[in-house]
Specification:
This protein is mainly alpha-helical. The protein folds into 2 domains: 1-21 and 31-115, no CATH class; 132-196, Orthogonal Bundle (Arc Repressor Mutant, subunit A), CATH 1.10.10. It contains 9 helices and no strands. The protein has helices at residues 2-10, 33-59, 62-79, 89-114, 127-130, 133-142, 147-158, 163-170, 174-195.
């Protein structure tokens, strides 16, 4: 059953093509499985933690974030041959994670619409130990923003992406990124200014 749900989550999580991504010509040498595993191990070593933190800020659950990232690596396994420049692999992986987080949030919203509300379950006992109060306030404020604003802010201030990288990851223009960043920051200042 776990394999089935993982497959269901992966469907639709492959991002739109990014600059440098191509479909390999029949004459190009494709990566063998050993090379694919080596590349994925390297990407995992270098980016796994930051991708989980990125996904956690979007889906607000560490377990779900880890699932999103693992599913992204599964999708990446088959996409490696389509990425022309090896330097673009991390950006492509980040796009898969963003799309996976969006899909998970959509499924969560749909489930809430169709399920009757469950009784409220209190936060885990260790939750308070993991986050300071100011981090909880920032996370709560982030979740009041539109999805695009939240994604832009997280990519810029948490992941350290430049506007051009954010635009590529989200498939929007740099002007739209600037607009979402500006509006998101204004909303965050109002939210956090009123909370203090």
């Amino acid at each position: 059953m776990a394999a089935m749900s993982m497959r269901d989550d992966v469907v639709g999580s492959t991002p739109a093509p990014i600059r440098g991504m191509t479909t390999p010509a029949p004459t190009e040498a494709l990566l063998d499985d050993v090379e694919r595993r080596r590349v994925l191990a390297e990407l995992s070593r270098d980016h796994y933690r930051s991708l989980v933190r990125l996904a956690a800020l979007l889906v607000d659950r560490t377990e779900s974030a880890e699932d999103v990232v693992q599913e992204a690596f599964v999708s990446m396994f088959g996409a490696l041959d389509r990425i022309e420049n090896p330097k673009d692999r991390a950006a492509y992986l980040r796009s898969i994670v963003l799309n996976g987080a969006r899909a998970r949030l959509r499924r969560r919203r749909m489930k809430r619409r169709h399920d009757r509300p469950a009784e409220s379950i209190g936060a885990a006992a260790d939750q308070g130990a993991l986050r300071r109060e100011d981090q909880r306030e920032v996370t709560a404020a982030l979740h009041t923003l539109s999805t695009r604003q939240r994604e832009c802010l997280v990519l810029k201030f948490y992941d350290g992406c430049k506007e051009v990288e954010i635009a590529a990851a989200l498939g929007i223009s740099q002007g739209a990124v600037k607009t979402h960043l500006s509006r998101g920051m204004t909303a965050m200042e109002k939210q956090l200014g009123g909370a203090r």
